[in-house]
Design goal:
heterodimer, A: 438 residues, alpha+beta, Beta-Lactamase, six-stranded mixed sheet, five-stranded antiparallel sheet, B: 126 residues, alpha/beta, Rossmann fold, five-stranded parallel sheet, 5 helices, globular, binds adenosine-5'-triphosphate, binds magnesium ion
Chain lengths: 438, 126
């Protein structure tokens, strides 16, 4: 810059008279003042810049450095001025080979990731931007470079990376926790089933042990009843009625023992290919009187031509009857029972919540489904968990044994089939039975 | 002799008595009672009843053993036997059915049902 000023001065000398020279001197002083001001202004800017600034000449000798550069690198200004710029770079400078060529061609480089080296040898990552200075002929006169200390930013980036990693770890923990929760739930379900199986077999063993002791006295009672029934004259109406009640009591006790025995016996099923629709019709016939008594409407949505299922007809009939009886009992006066049968190809794993029975089905397997739906009182969530337990009943007053569904479940299990009961209180209940195709 | 003679072998004495009372009340049947297996076999040989009601589960000699002995003895082998059981004693039931093709009744059973069964068996045997 001083060079420029000198040129200007010389040019002025050749051109003007004294007066003019005087004036000119004034102007020059003024201009120099201006220039000084400008220089001071620029120096100030350079000095106060937070980013480091260096200026090098075409031979890559350092010409100017600002305060920030000195502070960053631990050099004094005079230690840097006149030195090759390479001393402040850790390895390669942007002023060599291909990079230099590119810089000259494009007149600038931006945000180059390089490393400065301090006086004490420490390496500092910087983001370097450079700009080429040319004179009016276009010749290279120097390069201005600005470098930004990247340590803080790198730290922040590192921190961000760590935070991201932490977040990922937390997410992984969450996923693990959820998996654990699911596994735990499954375990609990299995446990529930085991407990239930245990209860069933305990009930069965008990029944097996006492059945003989109970059935013999029952035989005596029933023989006594039939004798008295025959002997009593028809006018003894009260006595005859009482005998009827005793008979009923014996029948009920006998039924309970029979049901319990089902659990203990290694009952062999008489499995044959059966038409599920006709089993359904038989079951309906068995409970028909009860429907009519209560004004219950039976709707059938039955698919014809469904494949035969592998079943012990009498046992599956027992299951349907138990479910139908429950449906009838759940409805006060009026109501609807919808019976469906259809073929379904299993799309998902079958062990959904509330589904009972071993999982003997495979995805893609063709199954026959029977649904028995009622518009009765429904079952609370609380009770829904217990309905398959032996002796669980809400019908104490009307003589429910609480064995209907546990017996049904047992039969379903023996068939390697599934039973699922869904219910909504106040709306109704739906039993879904999945049977194996023969 | 118009009466059909029945021998009941059952350790439950009251049951035997009631069966006797019922069957005799209901029709032309006469019933003899034996409350254990040994006594039953002896009575069977002596009286040669038209039909034997035999309890499966008795203390002492079990029903199946009694049945085997009755079927081995030429004096009694032709007599139809209806077995009575409180529980479905599956193994002895199948055994008995396999061996001798006998009838089988599960207790409790009331008078008329029992009579009907007896008549049915006798019809088949004639
Ligand atoms: N369709 C239904 N609607 C409402 N509640 C039902 C239905 N099915 C079953 N339940 C509930 O489940 C309980 C258990 O049913 P389960 O058939 O095992 O026994 P139960 O009907 O009480 O007695 P049992 O069948 O021996 O007469 C019932 O007492 C009832 O509370
Ligand atoms: Mg029920």
């Amino acid at each position: 810059m001083e060079k420029n000023l000198n040129k200007k001065e010389k040019g002025a000398e050749a051109l003007v008279s004294q007066k003019a020279l005087f004036n000119l001197l004034g102007d020059i002083t003024e201009a120099m003042d201006g220039l000084a001001k400008t220089k001071e202004y620029v120096d100030n800017i350079i000095k106060s810049m937070i980013d480091t600034l260096i200026v090098i000449d075409p031979d890559t000798i350092i010409k100017t450095v600002n305060k920030a550069t000195c502070e960053l690198l631990g050099y004094k200004e005079e230690e840097l001025i006149g030195k090759p710029v390479a001393i402040i770079f850790a390895e390669v400078t942007p002023f060599k080979g291909a990079r230099m060529k590119k810089l000259i061609e494009e007149n600038s480089i931006k945000d180059h990731g390089v490393a400065y080296k301090t006086k004490s040898g420490e390496e500092i990552p910087v983001s370097f931007s450079g700009s080429v200075m040319r004179d009016k002929h276009g010749d290279l006169v120097g390069i201005v470079g600005i470098a930004r200390d990247m340590r803080e930013i790198k730290r922040l980036m590192q921190k961000e990376k760590e935070l991201a990693a932490q977040a990922a770890a937390a997410e992984a923990d969450r996923i693990k926790a959820r998996e654990l929760e699911i596994a735990y739930k499954k375990l609990q379900e299995t446990q529930d089933m085991l407990i239930q199986a245990e209860k069933l077999s305990a009930a069965g063993q008990l029944a097996g042990g006492v059945a003989h002791e109970v059935k013999n006295p029952l035989s005596i009672i029933i023989q006594g009843v039939s004798y008295l029934e025959k002997k009593l004259p028809p006018k003894e109406r009260d006595s005859i009625e009482i005998l009827g009640m005793i008979r009923e009591g014996v029948d009920r006790a006998d039924r309970i023992i029979g049901l319990l025995l089902d659990f203990s016996k290694e009952t062999k099923l008489d499995l044959r290919p059966e038409d599920v629709n006709s089993i359904l019709e038989n079951s309906l016939t068995l409970v028909k009187a009860k429907f009519e008594l209560k004004n219950i409407d039976v709707k059938r949505d039955i698919k014809k031509d469904i494949p035969k299922v592998l079943a012990d007809k009498r046992r599956i009939e027992q299951v349907f009857v138990n479910i139908l009886l429950n449906a009838i009992q759940a409805m006060s006066e009026e109501g609807k029972i919808i019976i469906r049968s259809y073929v379904k190809e299993l799309k998902e794993a079958t062990n959904g919540l509330g589904r009972r029975g071993e999982d003997h089905f495979q995805i893609g397997e063709k199954t026959v489904i029977v649904e028995i739906e009622d518009t009765g009182a429904g079952i609370s969530k609380e009770n829904l968990k217990k309905i398959f337990d032996p002796f669980f009943t809400t019908k104490d007053s009307s003589g429910g044994t609480g064995l209907g569904l546990s017996v049904s479940l047992n039969i379903i299990k023996m068939h390697k089939a599934l039973i699922d009961i869904k219910s909504q209180i106040g709306k109704g209940t739906k039993a879904i039975i999945t049977l194996k195709v023969a | 002799m118009g009466l059909t003679r029945i021998l009941i072998i059952d350790d439950e004495e009251n049951f035997c008595k009631l069966v006797k009372m019922n069957l005799e009340l209901l029709g032309d049947l006469s019933v003899t009672i034996a409350t254990n297996g040994k006594m039953g076999i002896k009575l069977a040989k002596k009286t040669k009843p038209d039909l034997i009601l035999l309890d499966m589960l008795m203390p002492g000699m079990k029903g199946l053993e009694v049945l085997e002995r009755l079927k081995k003895d030429e004096n009694t082998m032709a007599i139809p036997v209806v077995m009575l059981s409180a529980i479905g004693d599956e193994p002895s039931k199948t055994r008995a059915m396999e061996l001798y093709d006998e009838e089988y009744i599960t207790k409790p059973i009331d008078g008329p049902q029992l009579k009907a069964k007896i008549e049915e068996v006798l019809r088949r045997f004639k």
